[in-house]
Sequence to fold (233 residues):
Amino acid sequence: QSALTQPASVSGSPGQPITISCTGTSGDVGAYNYVAWYQQYPGKPPKLIIYDVTNRPSGVSHRFSGSKSGNTASLTISGLQTEDEADYFCSSYTRDSVPWVFGGGTRLTVL
Amino acid sequence: QVQLVQSGAEVKKPGASVKVSCQASGYPFTDYYIHWLRLAPGHGLEWMGWVYPSTGGTNSPQKFQGRVTMTRDTSISTVYMDLSGLTSDDTAVYYCARDFEYSSSSGYFNNWGQGTLVTVAS
Fold:
């Protein structure tokens, strides 16, 4: 049981935008602007694509953007490409005993 | 470039211990926290703790305290994660990951090892 809730799967067509949600509580996502998103291809380690809710590390495509409203953070991918087909995980800082918690992951399929 | 190279897959029996290594290169080893995380089938990522190579200091959540030991060997730029009392619930891919920020534990992980599959089965 993951601390943050993500949809198990989403799908979209090339060129369309897609949004993945990540729902937490007032003790994690809602309390801090320390949300991150990771992209993971099968058999590969995760890659940091968003941090501090909205920031992109150097080299990450501008098609990836992050936002937050209340206890829910979102990752939006504009202009879907086939290479975006992967798993996406969110994470957040939390005031609980474990400082960082994660979502269960969302499988993105590009149709 | 920054690289983290982990040791190979392990198969262990319940009750045993496993030690996973993670050798870093491409940056000053003592300047960045190294975290350990795992990804189990059907579960999300789980943070297991960090080690700060400069001091050898460690931190891990209560869930793993008493079972996980994280150490480092600065002479070979390597950190180790030792997990004892294994059960089938510990079957997972274990990752080491470098923290995003210099000399700080930000909780953002932007360089990862390739992962080590640990299978616990009788």
